[in-house]
Amino acid sequence: xxxxxxxxxxxxxLAFLALSPLYYVSAADDQPLAAKARQVLRRHCVECHSxxxxxxxxxVLNAAAMRSSDEGYVIAQDPEESLVYLRIIDEDMPPxxxxxLQPVTEEEREILRQWIAGGATDFPQxxxxxxxxxxxxxxxxxxxxxxxxxxxxxxLRFFTLHNVYNRRSTDPSDLRFYRxxxxxxxxxLTWERRIxxxxxxxxxGVNDDILYVIDLKEFGWDRQRNAxxxxxxxxxxxxxxxxxxxxxxxxxxxxxxxxxxxxxxIPVLRADWFVATATRPPLYHKLLQIPTDARSLEARLxxxxxxxxxxxxPRRIAxxxxxxxxxSGQNRLVQRSDALHGFYWKSYDFKPDTGRxxxxxxxxxxxxxxxxxxxxxxxxxxEHDGGEVIFSLPNGMQAYMLVDGEDQRIDVGPITxxxxxxxxxxxxxxxxxxxxIACHRHGMIKFKDSIRLGNATFGEVEQHVERLYPEREAMxxxxxxxxxxxxxxxxxxxxxxxxxxxxxxxxxxxVRKVAVWHRSVYLDLNTVLTELDLKEETQLLRVxxxxxxxxxxxxxxKGGVISRPEWEALDSKFGPSLMQQIATELGATPVxxx
Length: 594
Description:
Blueprint: H1 2-19, H2 33-44, H3 63-68, H4 83-89, H5 96-101, H6 106-117, H7 134-147, E1 156-160, H8 162-166, H9 175-187, E2 199-200, E3 211-215, H10 223-235, E4 240-241, H11 249-262, E5 268-270, H12 271-277, H13 283-288, H14 294-300, H15 305-310, E6 318-322, E7 332-339, E8 342-348, E9 386-392, E10 398-404, E11 409-410, E12 412-413, E13 430-431, H16 434-439, H17 459-468, H18 472-494, H19 510-519, H20 525-531, H21 537-541, H22 545-550, H23 564-568, H24 578-585, E14 589-590
Parallel strand pairs: 1-5
Antiparallel strand pairs: 1-3, 2-3, 4-14, 6-7, 7-8, 8-9, 9-10, 10-11, 12-13
């Protein structure tokens, strides 16, 4: 009976989509249907199904492979028998957590249905006649520096997207997310008061903006002899010198000139790497100068939770507790405080087996709130296992910190306490910075308190609970105020990279999107070529089969893939990353700043 109902509902949905003119994709549309289908699959499926080594062994961006598979992923001209389509229609995929934040629209379903019904044609590939060389990037950077004021040059740095632009799998519309992600991350890693956008630098022969420049002074990164940029250089797995390169010899002269004018070894970084990596520890903590414990951060932000707890006022401290949250299976408490630059939110999270974790019984924790005195409500104080801190930066953007039960900073939230079903970090682990940015794409997330009117306390204790846990209207006002502050800053930060008619509320969060595209998608031969700034496969073959085999890249020539972490990992014994090692075989020299 259940199966019959499921089939009946599927039949109804398929019939509705087939007949509904509202979601019809016109053949006269200037974008090919196959390109639209690819965008749908890239938006909803690629982070889990991007190569032969993923969980289910297929790549949704390879139409030919899906058609030829014995698994029936795509049956040309028969969407009702195509597994990819049916899993979406049946709402088996994407996973529930993904669907909740990023639903597959009926229009997107209809695009897939029409594409499969029309034969599931191959996805269009970008034209590589406009391949942008690394020589062009250094030439453009050098031209910009020569026109800049002499005193500004040592603080100018560049971010390039040419490697993404050159990739055949890159859709032109993807570039806006890389640009927005770059701007958002830069403005989320500064204590300066203004939102500052990176400036586009014109590259000869390229109509798109793929090279950007920043002034370190505008982000406060010029302090301590440009310490932040130096940290980025030390972690950079793509640093190369082209002095002896057989393919990029012309880049060497410009590279040396750019280094000289900027007075740094690596003046140009890849924007995709920066967005995906600077938002993770240890770089995230170093660049934003996040201290090693929450109490030090609170002192810097003029937040005094202990004293405000004793004399609660809604603007100084306000709490809400609820049974469910998006990242935890246990009840959760969130607490808002006024802070130097706006707000300071702190959550209290629990393991499943923590004895004093039930907030209805123990709403007045944490038990370790007071360092120098006994807790005045010790019998009613919860004991927590960790939490998330969210605080506003001077420019209105948000920053994050994860802590354990003793307020010590941690890189990753314990999986027994919190987890990320969307796997933003590449695993279910919640990684400070990146995972938090992805989750809080519109700022603070709405919630409804259940503790004020649903706790197990009486008398004086209950009165104190009511003072700490305000009425819903008062908390909603604070929440909305904080959301608006963040959204105003976010608009200034990223709206210029999207069309005016696009609604900021409906955007996919750009940092998460870039991080997933960069870190979770497997690299095939074409991608590796663009990573090495090579246009033709024959250029890579010149290193020889034995070299490719020794470096573990032989499978690429047979349709294989490698993971991004494998490609980028700096070798603890030999130093250079795998990318730098293969580039060495092509005549380049790894740059490994000390």
